[in-house]
Amino acid sequence: MKMFFPSHWRSAFLASLCAVTSIAAISGCGGSKPTAGPAGSTAGGNAQGSSGANPTSKPATFSLAWSEYPSWSIFGVADEVGLINGKEGEMGSIEKKYNVDIKLILATYDSCITLYGNSQADAVCITNIDILGAAGSRNSVGIMPTSTSAGADACIVAGINTLEELAGKPTRGLEKSVSQYCFERCLEKLGKNPADYPFSQMDPEQAALAFQGKNEGIQSIMVWNPFVMQSIRSRSDSKVLFSSESIPEEIIDMVVMGKDSLSKPGGEAFAKAVVETFYLMNQRMADPKTSDQTLVGIGARFAKLELDDMKTIVKQTKFFGDPADAVRLFADERFQKETMPLVSKFCVKYGLTPKPVELSYGDGKGFMDFSTKYVSGYLESQKK
Amino acid sequence: MIRRTIPTWLFIGLAIVGVLVLLVSYEFLSQRQTRINPKQTTIPSFEKLGEGVKRMFAKQGTEENPKPPMFWVDMRATLWRLFVGLGVGVLASVVVGVMMGAYRWIEAPLSPIVMFLSKIPPTGMMPIYFAIAGTDQKMFTSMVALGIFFSMAQSIYQAVRDNVTDEAINKAYTLGASESEVIYEVIWKQILPNVIDCIRAQIGPAMIFLIAAEMVVSDAGLGYQIRMQSRVLNMNIVFVYLLVLGIIGVVAEYSLLWIRRRVCPWFNGV
């Protein structure tokens, strides 16, 4: 009869197990203090040493992780119209102006967070809620708000007519994230106790798909655009129960960059280039000649959405298309004293951060700094 | 020389060295990453991994309303889904595979379908499962069961064709066996070790489908927790969960080998 694995394998396995345990014990006791040494570069930014600042040299590459969302898909369209070129090593007109290579990484929203938090991307498109979790493991600077959700995050229901009927029934959406934050805050504003309303995890894209497919287990979803619009359009018995319209300027969509990346040669140029791209695209949206075309361009990225839908979407996602408005927001007392503390509380409640992340507004002291430097810089350059 | 034997002590020694090299290089990478970013959670040190383990087993909920530690909640959810999914999938594929191998008129209409569908990756079919099978146990069961069904039915059908000789069947008939007796006493008993080997081979794919489904829709389970914790950047928990997945695979593999040895001692295996 054949042994099912040789006996020395078994001993080898046991011996390795011992080795694992002992090593774990040793390193656990000794602690792992970092020793001083030359800092390497993170995987995301292939900065070219000190040469990045020199306009004649080969430009440094910086990456921006983004997901499809009205004010972020702008970067995808900017790539299509040639303002920037998202491929590594290729340059669009803005990249040439700032002598920096922008690499666009398109991923789902939560993959973007993971990429950024693990230093695989230099900058990320993220909300003011989820960035606090990421800032717990990477010091960050918010370089520009792109939009605020004014109806773009919504709880869509079918077969449920009132808030009372929703109680006890699960709502599907991205848990411990901007969706759940919006869900709870809206319920609070509407005088309900969020504890009575279960919220369970499901990828927003899949949740919207299952909802549109009239999946019996899914009567209520909390998602963002384009999923909100798609779901409403494709299912006649659905309606918006409540949306981020009830919590104006609480959910801020923004572009955030790692402090480590920002301090690399070329980092500041990258931040400036991203800001300029965003405002140039906004100008295209405001210009009657290019407006519809740009909107359709963004809508085509979402698929299945036509010009009229895109016009609604842009209303529900209030763009900070005016740099002065962006500067106002980060300096706004309500944003600093009310909104961010509320967000901070949410993050601690759900374990996104063990303790509140230190925030700062422009002085760079906090682990998460909301800086108006780059937007103001752009504003100044326009005045000249 | 190829395949020259080495002494047992050397084999064991090299096995330990392999593991040690892995652990030391991990620690080195972790320290290097910490030098780059002192707050990094990407490659957690062993100390941080220990904290992760503590959090996994920490009590949840409030004092009046205590909940079990998250690790047990996740394990229970995942293992149950895996168990039910595998059970249904194995049962269905054994029935279909044996029938296809036994009767040409079942084989004829099914073999092209089974062959074709076994080539479509089940993870790609996920959106369809969500749309038709809901989001609860039914979805996970159908995901895992259908995920392994086609390729397993295909292998079992092959095993019946290749391993059960016409002589054995004719002998049984000559000795007066009925059709059902031939199927059970001759075919089933002959291919049982192949079935067990098939299950061994399908545990990996079954885990892939299950984890992928849990990552997309679920509020408990190893896949759910891995996605959630990686989004909130608790890599120390993610790494430990991955280790657990590996352990589940190893345990399942050796238990099935053990069962095969007990149930079919005559089988010499491949």
Question: What does the model show?
Answer:
The complex is a heterodimer of chains A (384) and B (270). Chain A is an alpha/beta fold and 384 residues long. Chain A folds into two domains: 49-147 and 251-383, Periplasmic binding protein-like II (D-Maltodextrin-Binding Protein, domain 2), CATH 3.40.190; 153-246, Periplasmic binding protein-like II (D-Maltodextrin-Binding Protein, domain 2, 3-Layer(aba) Sandwich), CATH 3.40.190. Helices cover 46% and strands 17% of the residues of chain A. In chain A, strands 1, 2, 3, 4, 10, 11, 12 and 13 form an eight-stranded mixed beta sheet that branches. The N and C termini of chain A lie far apart (89 Å). Chain B folds into two domains: 1-40; 66-263, MetI-like fold. Chain B contains ten helices and two strands. Chain B has helices spanning 8-36, 46-57, 70-102, 104-117, 126-133, 137-163, 166-174, 179-216, 222-231, 235-263, and strands spanning 60-61, 66-67. Chain B has a two-stranded antiparallel ribbon. The mean pLDDT of chain B is 89. Classes of the chains: A alpha/beta (384), B mainly alpha (270). Chains A and B meet through helix 1, helix 4, helix 5 and helix 8 of A and helix 1, helix 2, helix 5, helix 9 and helix 10 of B.
Largest sheet of chain B: 2 strands, antiparallel
Structural class, from helix and strand content of chain B?
Answer: mainly alpha
Could you list the spans of chain A in which at least 5 consecutive residues all have pLDDT below 50?
1-5, 24-53
Number of strands of chain A: 13
| Arithmetic mean of pLDDT of chain A | 84
Write the layout of secondary structure elements.
The complex is a heterodimer of chains A (384) and B (270).
Chain A (H helix, E strand, L loop, with lengths): L6 H24 L29 E7 L3 H12 L11 H6 L1 E7 L2 H9 L5 E5 L2 H6 L4 E10 L3 E6 L4 H4 L4 E3 L4 H12 L9 E3 L2 H9 L7 E5 L2 H8 L3 E6 L8 E7 H4 L4 H20 L1 H15 L4 H10 E3 L3 H9 L1 H17 L9 E2 L7 E3 L2 H11 L1
Parallel strand pairs in A: 1-2, 1-3, 4-13, 6-7, 6-8, 12-13
Antiparallel strand pairs in A: 3-10, 4-10, 4-11, 5-8, 5-9
Chain B lengths: L7 H29 L9 H12 L2 E2 L4 E2 L2 H33 L1 H14 L8 H8 L3 H27 L2 H9 L4 H38 L5 H10 L3 H29 L7
Antiparallel strand pairs in B: 1-2
Helix pairs in contact in B: 2-10, 3-4, 3-6, 3-8, 3-9, 4-6, 5-6, 6-8, 7-8, 8-9, 8-10, 9-10
